[in-house]
Amino acid sequence: MAVPLRLGTRGSLLALAQTRWVESQLKARYPELTTELVIIKTTGDKLKEVPLAQVGGKGLFIKEIEEALLGGAVDLAVHSLKDMPAEIPPGCVLAAVPPREDPRDAFVSERYASLGEIPSGGRVGTGSLRRKVQILNRRPDLEVVHLRGNVDTRLKKLKREGLDAIILAAAGLNRLGLGQIPRTYLSETEMLPAIGQGALGLEVRADDFKLQEQLAFLNHYPTQVAVAAERAFLARLEGGCLVPVAAFGRLEDGLLTLEGLISDLEGRQLIREHLAGRPEEATDLGRRLAEILLAQGGRDILAAIYGRSL
After folding, report:
1. Catalytic residues, which ones?
2. Which CATH class name applies to 105-186?
3. Which pTM was predicted?
4. Which end of the chain is more exposed for a tag (fewer CB within 10 A), N or C?
5. Using an 8 Å Cβ cutoff, are 37 and 69 in contact?
C-alpha cells in the first residue's frame, strides 16, 4: 500500500473546500497518488466570539497546523494565505502559491447595494479591523458591529442580529459556491483587501524536497510575486490582526504595482500610497512602500497602537 500524502487543514467548510481543491489538482497531476485529509482545530477556531485583535491575531488559524507539519503528523499544510504571519517558522517553507481567487471584499445586504445607501446610524458587521477602519473612514456615521464565525454563521447573523450589511471575502463566497447570496463587489479603491486575500499558501517541511518539486506545478508566478510584495510590506510593519494595515499587489504587463494602507483604530487617520517596480524586486518593493507610509505618518499611528516605535 502506498503511503498517503497527508494534507493538514482546518475543519471549516471553506478550509475543506480549499484543501479538496488542492487534493483534486494533485490527483489529476499524479493519478497514482493517495491522499488523506487531517483536520486540525486551531486556536482561532476555538475562540469563536473573541475579537482577533484582543487575542493577538498572529498565526491563530495556522499555529497548530504548522506544529503538526513540523512534528510529522501531516506532510502538506493548506492555508488561506491571509491567515499566515509574515514570518514562516524555521523548518517550513511556502512551496507554492496557486492562482488567486477574487481578492475583493463583498458587500452583502438584502436591503442596500452599497455602503453609501445605508442610512446614518446603520449597522455593518465585520470581524476585521482592516474593514472596520475603511468603513468608518468613509462612513463615520455608521456603527461597525463585531462579527466572528465562518461564512454560514455570519450570513445567519446578518438576519438574526438585524444588520444592514456584512462584509465578506469574495473568494470565500466563490469557493463555497454561494452565487445566490446578494452581494456587491467592493473595488480595491473602496476597500483595500487583506494581505494575501484570495490566495492559498501550500506549506511543507523545508527538507521535503520531493514534495516541493511535486507542488511546483501549482505555483502561479503573478500571484506569488504579488503576495510576496504584500507580505514584505506586512513584515516591515510587524503587522497582524492587531493593526489596521492592508496591501494589494498586481502584476500586469511585466510591472508589479503595490498599494498599501495604514490607519489608526477608528479610521480617522488613514494613509494610503502605491508603488510600482519589477516583479523580481517584489520583497524590496513591499519594504519600500512600508517605509514611505511610515514616513507619511504611519510611524506615529503604529507607535500609538504598539506602544513603541518601529
Report:
1. 83
2. alpha beta
3. 0.92
4. N
5. no
